[in-house]
Amino acid sequence: QLQVVESGGGLVQPGGSLRLSCAASGFTLDRYPIGWFRQAPGKEREGVSCLSGSLGTPNFADSVKGRFTISRDNAKNTVYLQMNSLKPEDTAIHYCAARRRLFSVCTLRGTDYDYWGQGTQVTVSS
C-alpha cells in the first residue's frame, strides 16, 4: 500500500527552525514528485515546495524562497523540508503528498498529487 507519513512539526518561536520529514512506504520515493503543502485555518491550501522525481529539481513558493530548503535521503526513502527563519504566518498544518507519475517534474498544485499524509502541525508563536 502506497503511503506517505509526515513528522517533525511543533511549536517554535519566530525566527526559529524546524525540519519536517516525509517518509514513504510502498514505493521508491526518488522516482516520483513529492510536494509539501500547508493549510492555515480559514485559508486555502497552499503549495510550499516540491521535488521532482529522478533529478530532484526543487521548486518553492515565493513566500518561502530563501528560508526553506527541500532534500531527499534515498537510503531512508524520505524527503525533508528544512524551514528556517520561521514567521507567524507559517503557522499551518503541513502535508506531504506524492504524485503518481514516474520521473515527472513536480508542481505546487495540490490537485496534481495522488497520495497524501495526515499532516503535521507547525505553530510559530512567541
What order do the helices and strands come in, and which of them pair?
Elements: E1 3-7, E2 10-12, E3 18-25, E4 34-39, E5 46-51, E6 58-60, E7 68-73, E8 78-83, E9 92-98, E10 115-116, E11 120-124
Parallel strand pairs: 2-11
Antiparallel strand pairs: 1-3, 3-8, 4-5, 4-9, 5-6, 7-8, 9-10, 9-11
Strand content: over 45%
Radius of gyration: 13 Å
> Which shape, going by the Cα principal axes?
globular
Classify the secondary structure makeup into a structural class. mainly beta
Number of strands: 11
Number of H/I helices: 0
Helix content: under 10%
Q: How is the main sheet built?
A: 7 strands, mixed
Intertermini distance: 40 Å
Q: pLDDT below 50 for ≥5 consecutive residues: which ranges? A: none
Order of helices and strands: EEEEEEEEEEE
Task: Provide mean pLDDT, rounded.
Answer: 96
Protein architecture, described:
There is one protein chain. Helices cover 0% and strands 45% of the residues. Strands 2, 4, 5, 6, 9, 10 and 11 form a seven-stranded mixed β-sheet that branches. Strands 1-3-8-7 form a four-stranded antiparallel β-sheet, with no helix packed on it. With 126 residues, it is an all-beta fold. It has no helices and eleven strands. The model has no long low-confidence stretch (mean pLDDT 96). It is globular, with a radius of gyration of 13 Å.
Quick rundown:
The chain is mainly β and 126 residues long.
Main attributes?
126 residues, 7-stranded mixed sheet
